[in-house]
Amino acid sequence: MQHFFAVIDIEYVDPYPWTVIPPRSSDLGPFEEWDDIGSWCREEAEDLWADRELDPGPNGIDFVARSLERCAEAFSPPGTDHWLFLHRDHPTDLPLPVFAAIGPASGPREGTLRALTLADDPNATKPPVVTPFQSERLGEGLSVFRYVRQEGFSQPLACLRYAWQVEEPGADIVIWTATEDVARLHQATADLEHLARSLAVYDP
């Protein structure tokens, strides 16, 4: 999605189940590419244990810091212009990656939302579940859940997408995640819905 200068605003709750990694593209205004992602991940790991008032033991901080760094490099390498949200209930859980991107409004609302959510995906194993999704901050959007075949694998991917078109500042917003672990996705559903309702965009 082509970038333009608009920023995601996040409504935090405590305890917050998400680690938020902003865009790592050097030309996105307030979010400069990090000089030392390893140090940032270690600080975030320390905060995760402290915020949950848990004892990390001798190796817990190092383990979580390495996990965060691997996720950052795999899902949000330098130059990317999307947001990355890593969901976990416990610091040592395998994070579920969720992505969010903003771009200029690209066409009529209904068609754009169906395109962004892949509501008519011909590769879905069964008809996608398409549901209107209301957010106080972004208005009415679309939520789509679908299963997609993976070439060479028997287990399909469970995919969930949300999308909105916002008149001001004239933006399309999409959130998406995909995993083979359907139970993990269902476990995170309430937090995903809260995240989708907590996001807003503004033109700084």
Task: Please tell me about this protein's structure.
This protein is an alpha+beta fold and 204 residues long. The protein has one domain: Protein Transport Mog1p, Chain A. The protein has 5 helices and 9 strands; from the N terminus they run ββααββαββββααβ. Strand 5 (129-135) and strand 6 (139-148) form a beta hairpin. The protein is globular, with a radius of gyration of 17 Å.
Give the CATH level 1 class.
Answer: Alpha Beta
The number of helical elements comes to 5
Count of DSSP strands: 9
Main pleated sheet: 7 strands, antiparallel
Give the termini distance in whole angstroms.
Answer: 20 Å
Spatial order of the strands forming the largest sheet: 2-3-4-8-7-6-5
- What would the average pLDDT be, to the nearest integer? 86
Tertiary shape:
globular
Helical content, roughly?
A: 25-40%
Q: Which fold name fills CATH's third level, the topology?
A: Protein Transport Mog1p, Chain A
Stretches where pLDDT is under 50 for at least 5 consecutive residues are: 1-5
Strand fraction: 25-35%
**Structural class, from secondary structure content?**
alpha+beta
